[in-house]
Amino acid sequence: MGSLTKAAEEGPSAAVDWSDEAVIYVNGVRRVLPDGLAHLTLLQYLRDIGLQGTKLGCGEGGCGACTVMVSCYDQTTKKSQHYAINACLAPLYSLEGMHIITVEGIGDRQRGLHPVQ
After folding, report:
1. CATH entry, 23-105, from 3.10.20.30, 1.10.1470.10, 1.10.10.10, 3.40.50.720
2. For 65-84, how does the pLDDT look when each residue is reduced to its tens digit (9 = 90+)?
3. Continuous segment of H or E residues that includes residue 71
4. What is the spatial distance between Cα 21 and Cα 27, in angstroms, rounded to a whole number?
5. Alpha-carbon distances, residue 10 vs 13, 17, 75, 78 (angstroms)
6. H-type alpha helices, 1-117
C-alpha cells in the first residue's frame, strides 16, 4: 500500500512523495497503520487507540452510533469532500490517506464542546 505523505489539501501543484506506509489521519493526528490489521474495521481501530466516543450499536450500519466524518481531496473538483460513514462497516485499510473526525475531534470538556454536542 502506498500513500501520499503530503496533505491532500495542498493541491495538485504540490510535490508528491509516495511512501510504503499506510497512513490515516484521526482527529488531525497522522497515524501509520502497521501491517496485519486487515481484519479490523475502523470502529475496532478507533476503540483500540483509546477513542471510546464512537460506539458499536447494531453492528449493521442502521443505528448511527458509529458514525464518523471522513474527508478526502477530490482531484477532479479540486475540493475537499466530506462524508459520514458507519465505522462499524468500514474496513480500516479502505480509508488509507483519508482524514477521520470522531466525536472526540469536534470538542471535549477541556477544549470546549462544539454546539452540535
Report:
1. 3.10.20.30
2. 999 999 999 999 999 999 99
3. strand 67-74
4. 19
5. 8, 12, 11, 10
6. 42-48
Measure the CA angle with vertex 73, ends 96 and 86; round to 5°: 55
User: How many other C-beta atoms can be found within 10 angstroms of the C-beta atom of residue 96?
Assistant: 15
For residue 29, the SS3 value is strand
| Tally of residues, the chain | 117
Q: What predicted TM-score, i.e. pTM, was given to this entire model? A: 0.78
**Helix (H/G/I), strand (E/B), else coil: 30:** strand
Interval 29-57 mean pLDDT = 94
Tell me which residue of 19, 14, 17 sits closest to 2, measured CA to CA: 19
Instruction: List the chain domain ranges.
Output: 23-105
Task: Judge contact between 96 and 3, C-beta under 8 A.
Answer: yes
78 within 8 A of 112, measured Cβ to Cβ: no
